[in-house]
Amino acid sequence: MNFIKRVRYYDGLLADIKNLVSTNKVVHISDVPSSVDIDKFYIEMGDQLGMLFRKDVDPATRQLVHDSWTIVKYDVRYLHDTYKHSNKAQPLHTDYCNASIALDVVELICVEAAPFGGATIFMDSILLLELLKKFKPGLMKQLQDKEVIFGKAPHPLFRNTARVISYDDDGPLLYWNYAVVAPDNTPDVLQMCEEFHDFLESYVVRGGLCTPINLAPREGVFMQDKRILHGRNSFLGDRHLLKGGIATKDLEMVQEKVHKIFG
Ligand SMILES: [Fe+2]
Hints:
The protein is of the alpha+beta class.
């Protein structure tokens, strides 16, 4: 499976997106003409891949908003609440490691690009595992063996247990987000998470080993959430992205679970 592919918009892209996303871990869509309704286009693309899950939490009321992209936007009022509204660098992570339904693909759409910085950065799981194998074999073994609870508190949707590194027929899978490692993990799991976080930030990110994509307005990326890690460079000025998660497998089961949680 290829790591990153840039695809310039063309008529018929909608019919090809499923194949593109299954053969590339990151698909960067560019040159979307101004005649295309961005909202409609990216919703149709998401629906083409499976079940597009669009729900956001209103930062002011903390209530769940249905049928809304997750808004990733610098907002000085909420910048200390979550990375979504901050302008600081965001460590490497997967978006939905804590989700109890399998949201395999993340869709990220640019409304406004930061004038300085703010690239989304990507690390291929294959390269990451090569680095761990060579330089941190003990840590790698732990990441394959120990289960981690993700999700700071019990939640019907955003709480999940997984090994950081696992494998399926298509290769390695990663479940990781340092920001949502549950405090009730065992001390040795918490220690492992600290060590992995330090390795990623000190050597992978600051080593310049990630591939940056500076999304321009109207551009989007579709990424296979668990086959890469992604993060963000810090930025100055305003920046506004939209995000959705897409379930691509076992859709009936996912639908049932979503119905049970949200009614
Ligand atoms: Fe993310």
